Structures are given as structure tokens and as C-alpha cells.
Amino acid sequence: MSTKEILVFGAAGFIGTYLIDELLRQNYRVVASDISEIGKEYYKEKSISYLFIDITDKDNFEKIPSKKYDAVIHVAALQPANISSKSFDPRNYIKVNVIGTLNILEFCRKNEVGKLIYASSHRNTQGLWSRKKAIREEDGRCQKNSGEYALFSISETAAQDCIEYYENEHGIKSIIFRLPPVYGYGPHTEIFKEGKPILTGFQTFIENAMSGKPLEIWGDSSVGRDIIYVKDVVSAFMKALEKENVRGLYNIASGTYLTLQEQVELTARVFWRGDTKPVFVTKPEKEHKMDSFIYDNGKAKKELDWCPQYSFEDMLIDYKKEMQNQRFQYLVEKRKKMFQEA
Fold first, then answer.
1. What is the distance between the alpha carbons of residues 274 and 257, in angstroms, rounded to a whole number?
2. For 87-105, how does the pLDDT look when each residue is reduced to its tens digit (9 = 90+)?
3. What is the pLDDT of residues 44-79, one digit of tens each?
4. Torsions phi, psi for 198 (to 5 deg)
């Protein structure tokens, strides 16, 4: 049995929920923290220690039991997909993603935490995105300061810089995971797009396939992107906890360029209802606005001894199982509540 004590910020989120499930499966001792009431009930039912911590308030950190934490995992963030037009305030990106991260770093410094692992979006490489070249860690950043994700990306970039500063100045061993879109059962029903609720294209394909409806493919179907399954992301966290001397930035990505055409065909293969053949309708005249990018995951493979285990089809098969057993149904309920309150 592991004797390591792990503190997780953002425990009631998508990645946090899957991560804590795996930490417990591997017998780590876990303290979960978040500001979600529905998350609090979920962890209470599982008899898991849960702390209601607002990371933007430094006084909240006084609630955390004083003990030696081997690692802090930081997956708490404010993202555009979770913000309605009604609740949008650009200052909140700074409060949550920058001030919140600074408060976590101060907690780590004061309590001599052994390691910090932080999950961050890939958005600050937007100027490097291409369907032809896989982005490496050493390619650096190329942030675009316009568009829906700009302020979010600015705040996460600042958070990364704060982490690097605390490592250099205070010796906090830090690992930053750069993540492309992370898929998995729970949050991929509805999202906010430019502040308005929409059904995701991913969910639309699944629902239409399950209903035996034609699957519409808009725009250039050869455009693709790098997608990673949440369970592969979780396995990277587990590797990072095991490794003693790794630090720095890692692309936790599939390293595979999945085209829109492939995504739709594989979704139909897994979810299509009945014995009839799937029906595909191409509409090249309609714009799909899919961003195109791919990441090199060679550094994570070499230094973390990590490798993604799920192809997109494997992910869909496992997604379907998770959907049927409703193990993390509370993530869906949490999202429904968020949209009802928006």
C-alpha cells in the first residue's frame, strides 16, 4: 500500500474525478478539494476526505490539515467552456487561474510539499498550430491575444510563469502538463461557446448515431487535431507521481492527427443503432471552425515512461461503457445544474 499523501485541487472537475478514482485504486492517500457542492456530496458518499476550498482566497488554505503532502495536483481552472455571457467577468480568469495558482504555490512553499503537478491548456501555442508539424515542448509558446480563449490563455500562461518562478526561487519541484482537448464521459454534452450554450459536435455525432440519424460532416473533413482520452491523462499523472527526478513541461497528447472524417466514421462504428449501415451526409459548404494541431509526445514517453494506451476508437468503446454504468454520472448532473443556473 502506498504511503504517499496527495492533495488535489479541482477534485470535483472532470480530470480531477477520474484522477482521484485512479489514485484510490492504486492505494494512494488522498485529500480532495474544490468549491462544488455536488462534488462534496459525491465524495461524501464515497467516504473520501473533501475540503471546500476557494483557491482565490488565501485564508481558505487554513482549512487544510497540517501534514506532510508528498505531492499537490493542481487541476483547478476557469475555462470559457464553463462561462455564460451572463456570468462572464474577465477578471475571474486572473483571480482563479493566476491568484489561485499563486495561493497554491504559497501553500506548497510554506508546507514544503514534495512535488507540484499542474495541468494546463495547450492554447498558448495557437500561433504554432498546423496539420503538418507536431509541436514540441522546445518550440515554446506563440499566444494569440484575440478571440474567445485569449484571456483564458493569458491567465494560464501567467500561472505557468509563476510555477517556474517558484521552482527557481523556492525549489518547488514542478511538472506542467500541456493538454490538447481531453475527451471522456462527463463534460462533453453541452458547453458555452462565446457565452452561449451549445451541444458539442462530439455529443451530436454520438446522439445521432445512437438514434440512427444521418451524420452530417461539415466543411473540409480532412482537417484534424490531436485528442487525448482522460484516462491516458490520468496515467500520465500516475507516472509523474512515481518518477522522482522529472520536472518541467510535457506534452500529454496522443501524437495522432485525427481527421474529422475519421472521428465521425469511428463514432458511427461504435454507436450506430441497429443493423443498418451508417448514413453520412457531407456538407462542404458549411463551416465547422475546427482548429488543426498535433503535438509531439516523445519527451513524455522518454522521461515519464508514459505512452497513451487508447486510440480514438478505444476511447469511444470505453466512453460507451462509462456512459452505460453511470459511474461518474454526477459529472453530467453537475454540468446540467451549471447550465440551469446560467
1. 30
2. 888 999 999 999 999 999 9
3. 998 999 999 999 999 999 999 888 999 999 999 999
4. -140, 155
